[in-house]
Write a structure and sequence with these properties.
Chain lengths: 254, 254
């Protein structure tokens, strides 16, 4: 059983305002929760069906959990298709002072679509890139749609929110700051280094003017299209994936 | 003004059943409609605000259009954020007999998410790949979410729906049939040819067994991840993008 008050409290976490106020976010679904359980993130409370709890008892350790019915889970879910498990998790605070400048850093300037951010986190995780620096106007990592789209990768990613011009002028940066644009050096010819910084822009407007001023080399993804008419641009998460693939390819295929 | 009956009729097109029955689908938003107007697709009716019509009068030619208010557009829209223009378009029928086996063909086996299909169409269009063969259980190209995600690219793409095993055993195929799997030859080492066939599988289950039996070479996208734990897989549209990028790169960078 779950109290009416508790349901109201949890449902509030669908909204950014309350997530920030309470410092909590929601993680749903077996894949995401299993990844969460083996991460450093702190679970405040976990709700699941009896069946789910029995099956995953060993992984729960000292996580406070409650068995509730599936129809109760439906009531607290943020998703169209509710899952058998839902966890309330403390929002981690990543201090930009701890970022490792010797390792690759992906920078996102104004990514607004939660699905795009989630897909970007999942893709970065695939390629072993674990540091993402977001501009303050990026959508929050804790948005339920973002979390869902990461397919568990949120639990392995350090996501920093900060003022990008300040970050990009840090004296600790020794690599090159690359940014993707509609014009620039073709990405397949760039000799990337492990400590480079890769900047991706907003879905509609690309990289902002003040960040553009700090880009050291503009790169672009060639379309190779034979015909004149073609797509005007790539989706932001697609562009990021191609950049990360090419980046890793260049570094690890040497 | 738009009649109540007409509104009901248009709203029905949000559903696959009625799209199939009426042979019509909906295209919304300036970018998509502009691309539509310069395509071979047939517009049955176009609804837009006065302002929009005045601005785009020249492109309308003999398209039957009606000026309606923005609040009327809101009532017929399939989108959360209604647009200034909405077109009712005849569903094109692409005959698989007309496919060009000398040009690249992208094959989708069971793509279910409309956003993924739309993003795949947009990405293929970017890379100048204009032929997509979908298994019969793929989501329809005419789904409003798919159309939206293509950002106009639906108007430049030949999308065939067919039985994949039949298609993949066609005697007209002279290229190699590649499929993406979790194990296989690393994609960056494949010597692609222009007439190759590239097969992408379902979001959750990958390529189906009967299609797998017809794949001539299994390929995989390397993760290059340094750490042990990482994302289990890539989003289907992300995997497609990396395959298409690497395919074009190999062919055009020779």
């Amino acid at each position: 059983m779950i109290s009416k008050n508790k349901i109201t409290e949890i449902k509030k976490l669908a909204q950014k305002k309350f997530r920030e106020e309470l410092g909590l976010f929601i993680v749903e679904g077996t894949k995401s929760v299993i990844d969460l359980l083996s991460s450093q993130l702190i679970i405040n409370e976990l709700f699941a069906t009896d069946e789910w709890i029995q099956k995953h008892q060993k992984s729960l350790n000292d996580v406070p959990y409650s068995a509730i019915s599936f129809s109760e889970l439906e009531r607290i879910s943020c998703l169209k298709t509710p899952q058998e498990v839902l966890a309330i998790v403390k929002i981690p605070s990543f201090d930009i002072q701890n970022i490792d400048f010797q390792k690759p850093i992906l920078v996102l300037d104004g990514i607004r679509d939660p699905g795009n951010l989630g897909t970007i986190i999942r893709t970065a995780d695939w390629f072993g890139i674990r540091q993402i620096v977001c501009s303050d106007d990026c959508v929050e990592m804790t948005n339920p749609k973002t979390i869902m789209a990461t397919m568990g990768s949120f639990s392995r990613m350090d996501v920093y929110y900060t003022n990008l011009p300040d970050f990009l002028t840090s004296s600790h940066i020794h690599g090159t700051i690359y940014g993707t644009f509609m014009q620039g050096s073709p990405i397949q010819h760039i000799e990337f280094q492990l400590n480079d910084i890769l900047v991706i822009g907003n879905e509609a407007n690309g990289i902002s003017e003040e960040v553009e001023a700090l880009i050291q080399e503009k790169v672009h993804i060639p379309s190779y299209a034979i015909s004149d008419t073609k797509a005007e641009s790539l989706n932001a998460s697609i562009a990021t994936a191609i950049v990360l693939y090419q980046f890793c390819n260049k570094i690890f295929e040497k």
